[in-house]
User: Fold this.
Amino acid sequence: MIMTAGWRKLVLTTHLTFSIGWVGAAVAYLSLGVAAVRTEDAQMIRSAWIGMELIGWFVIVPLALASFLTGLVMALGTKWGLFRHYWVIFSFALTLFATVILLLHMPTVSSTTDIARTADAATLKGLGGDLGHPAIGLVVLLVVQVLNMYKPQGMTRYGQKKQQRPALVREARPERGT
Amino acid sequence: MTDPTSRMDTSAATEFQRRGMPRWVKVSLLVVVALIGVFVILSLLGVAPGDHGPTRHVPGGGAPASTAPEHGPGMHDR
Assistant:
């Protein structure tokens, strides 16, 4: 079902807000991860892990889920569809990948934070930070952003069939009338 | 980058689209397959960044139940 122009603008605004928020929150998370890696201060490492857990569960996870769902609504509710254009499929797959890895990674962050809460200075320094996941996640999110902005050409076979069908119906109608 | 279809008429543009998978899709798929391959090889060799084995994200991680916590010190980047 194609959305009306009003609904489309509302959902698009919501989707952009969640998606850009996700990128911003991932940058904030990464900054804490870098701080935990670079500092020698045990209290800073403890605070960084507590901050990462809070940002992860209460900001990044909700934004990721909201961005994924509103993106799905945008695809299904507009002419772009979900499986008609390659860029939409790539965007959808990358967002799904980032969301799944995030959801699988967050319990690990929580268990490390639990250790950080009570650990002594030596153990805290051994914890390090969390750089790989947020860094790769940011790259994935930026690729999705570029895809969504530039919309590179290329229609799937399914999309081509869908595009041809209305044209065939239009051509067939005058014949029926005669 | 210029759009190669911009100078074509509608039928030519449609024909251009019907050629099949665009080059950027093929290149992207190759990159994805290569990255997965590198990741799998590094995991099998045990040199994946941050000790990042394929079962790390699975609850229990395939590790014995006695290895608690699941994500011990030193497993993250330093």
Q: What stands out?
A: The two ends of chain A are 31 Å apart (CA to CA). Chain A has one domain: 5-177. Chain A touches chain B at residues 33, 37, 86, 90, 101, 104-105, 107-108, 111-112, 114-115, 119, 123, 126-132, 152-155, 160 (CB under 8 Å). The CA atoms of residues 38 and 95 of chain A lie 30 Å apart.
